[in-house]
Amino acid sequence: MGKIDNQSQVGLEDRERMHSTDLKPVSGGKQGKTAKSDHGVKTEQDDAGYHSDMHLELSLDNSSDPAIKPINAQPSKAVDNIVERFKALRTRQLIVGVFIATVIVLINNLFHGRGTFVVQVLSVALVVYTFCYVAVRRGAVIFGGFLFLWSLYVALTLLMIQYSGLRDPAVLGFMAILVFAAMLNHKAHFLGLALTIGITLLAVGIAGQLGGLDFSNNPFGWDTVVEVLIIYALASYAIWTLANDLRFTLKRLQSENSKVLESKHAYKKIAHYDHLTQLPNRIIALEKFNHAVYHAQRQNSKVAVLFIDLDNFKTVNDSLGHSVGDGLLVEIANRLSRSVRDGDTVCRLGGDEFLVILDDIADQTEVSLVADNMLQEIASPLDIEEHCLTATCSIGIAIAPTDGKDFDTIRKKADIAMYKAKNAGRNGMMFFDDVMNKDMLAHIDRVNSLRNAIINEEFVLYYQPKVDLKSGRVFSAEALIRWHTSEGKIIPPDEFIPIAENTGMIIEIGQWVLFEACRQCKEFQRNGLVDFSIAVNLSSIQFRRGNLEAVVISALEAAQLDPSYLELEVTESLLVENSDDIRSQFRALQKRGVTFSIDDFGTGYSSLAYLKDFNFDFLKIDRTFIGDCIENENHRVLCQAIVTMGHKLQLLVVAEGLETQQQIDVLTDAGCEFGQGNFFSEPVPVETFYNLQSIDIRSSNQDPISDYIVSLV
Length: 713
Ligand code: C2E
Ligand code: MG
Ligand code: MG
Known about the structure:
There is one protein chain. By secondary structure, the protein is of the alpha/beta class. Helix content is 58%, strand content 14%. The strands form three sheets. Strands 9-10-12-13-14-15-16-17 form an eight-stranded mixed barrel, surrounded by four helices. It has a five-stranded mixed sheet with strand order 3-4-2-7-8, with helices on both faces. β10 and β11 (490-491) form a beta hairpin. α7 (187-210) packs antiparallel against α8. The longest helix has 51 residues, at 222-272. Bound molecules: ligand C2E and magnesium ion (2 copies). Residues 478, 537, 569, 599 line the site of one magnesium ion.
C-alpha cells in the first residue's frame, strides 16, 4: 500500500473505532434527513381535535419527537401553542355550557309563558353563541370569546331592563360573565366588561329610581342600588385578583414548560443526531426503518438497508491524525447523502460505519445502482487539510421483508454482507444470502467452542526442535499450540489463532502458552537438556492490549526459568505499528535478558529500519522461501541475500521449514546458523519429544538429541 500523505489509498485492517471525544462539530452536514422526508406523516400539531386535557398532555410529548417532526421546532413556541389551544378549548366549553343553560332557560320560560321577549332574546343569543363556537373552532379564539361575552352581556342587560331591574336573576349572570372573562385570561377584555357592567347596573339603578324605567312589578330602592353595586364591586375585585393570580401562575408555568421543553429538545438532539456529521443515529434509523417497512407492506414494495464501512479508515486516523479522520467522515457523510433520494435515510452508526435505508424499492437492480453510485462518489479524490485522499468503502445489503422484517435482523445481515464484501477485496458491494448466514452461524459456533476450550483447558503445546546446523545440536524448541477438541479432533493454530485474535481471547490463550512453555522448558533442562531454551510465538494483540511484560516475568518466575532461555517470536506486522508502547515493552524485556526473533521474515512488510531499531537476536527466514529454494533460483538467491543481510545486522539466522538435505546444504553454504523443519522433526507432543531423546539421555552424558540429529544429517 502506498504512502498516505499524498493521493493516499485509505486502508483498514481491523475495525477499531474513533473516539467520539475527539470529534468536533462540523458544519455542512445534513441537518437530519428526517426533516426532509416526505412520508406524509400527519403530526399531532396538524390535528386540531383536542378534546380533553389528557389529549393536550399527549400532544406536549409528541410535539418534541424528532422522529416525526423537524428537530428545530421551537420549544417556547410549542408551549405558546399549547396555551392557545388550551384557551380555545376552554372558550368552546364555556360557549357550550352557556348554550345549554340558555336552552334550559328558554324552555323554562316557554313552559311558564313569561312572554315572547325572553324567547326572542334567548333565541337570538343561541344563534350568536353558535356563530361564536364556529369562530373559535376555526381558530378565531379571541374574536369568538369577545363576541360571546358581549352578546351574553347584551342578552342579560335586555332581560334585566325588560323585567325586574336590579332584582332580576340576570344580575347574577353578570358575575358569571366576569368569571368567564377572567377564565379566558384577557386583561383589557375583563376590565372593559367589568366597567360596562358596573355602569349598566348603576344606570339601571338610577333609571329605576328616577322613573326612566318601570320596575313596578318588582320595585327596589336606592338601598338596593347601593348594595348591588357594592356586591358587584367586591365580586369584580375578587375575580380580578383571582384572574391576576391565575395569569401569573400560568406565565410561570409557561416559562417552566418552555425550559423543560428546551432541555428536552437539546437532549433529543444529542441523543438522536451524530455531532460530527449531523446525520441521524441508530435510534432514528430504527424509526425510519419501521416506518419504511410499514409503507412498503402497504405498497407491496421493499426496503433496502445498506451497511457501509470505510476501507482502511484506521490507517488515516493513525497516520494523519483524528482531525483529518473527522474531515473524511464528514465528507463521506455528505457524499452518501448526495447519492440517495430525498425520502431515503442516511445515518451514522458510529466510527466509520454508516447505514442507508432506501424505501420503496422494487428489486435488487435498483439497489445495485444506488450502491454503485455511492461507491463511485466515495472513491473520487477528496482534499482534507491539504491532504489529497482517496477513500473506498465496502457495502453490505439486506432487503426487507425478504431477509427479515425487524431492524436488528436486517442490520445484522447487512453487516454480515459487508464483511463478505470486505473479504472479497473491498471497494465493492454484496447482497446478503443464506450461505453467508450459515458461514456466520458457523463462525459464532467456533467462537463459542473456543471460549469453552479455554474453560475446559483443551490446548496442548507441541514442540519442534531448533538445530544448530554446524554441530547438529538441538539448542531450543519452538512451542506450537494445538487445540485438542472434546470430539478428539486436533485443530492447528492457523484455524483458531485469528479468531482468538479478533475476539481478544488471544490474551488468555497467549498467557497460558507462556506459562506452560516456560514450565516445560525448565522441565527439559531438569531432564538433562543443557542450555536448552524455548521459543514462544506472540501475537501483536498481546503487545497492544495485554500487560505483556508483567505476564512474561510471572511466567518466568513461576517456572524459575532464567530469562535468557526464553525467546519470543514476533512477526513483522507488529513492527509496522511503530508505537512507543510496543518499543518500551520490547526494551524492558530485552533488558531482563529475554531474546527476540523476527518470525516469517520476507512475507510481511520487511522494513529493514525497524529490524535494526528493535535490536532482534534472531531472524527466521519464512518457509515459503526455503520450501522451493532448490527448484526456484530466485528464492535461493533471496535466502542467501537474507542470510547475508541478517549477518550484517548482527542477527543470527534461522531457516524455517527445512525438509530436505539439499535445502540444508544451500542454507549452510549461505552461512545460516540454525535450522528448523520437518527434516529434523515436525512439531510433536512433549512425550514424543522425550521419546526422541530418551535413548540418548540414557546412553550418554552428552547433549542427547544432537546425536540423534547428527545421525539424521
Ligand atoms: P510459525 O511460528 O512460523 O511456526 C512454524 C510453522 O511452520 C508451524 O506451523 C510448523 O508446524 C510449520 N513447519 C515447521 N517446519 C515445517 C516443515 O518442514 N514443513 C512444513 N510444511 N511446515 C513446517 P503450525 O504449528 O501450524 O503453526 C502455524 C503458525 O501458528 C505459527 O507459525 C505461528 O505463527 C502460529 N502459532 C503457533 N502457536 C502459536 C501460539 O502459541 N501463539 C501464537 N500467537 N501463535 C502461534
Ligand atoms: Mg514462530
Ligand atoms: Mg514462522
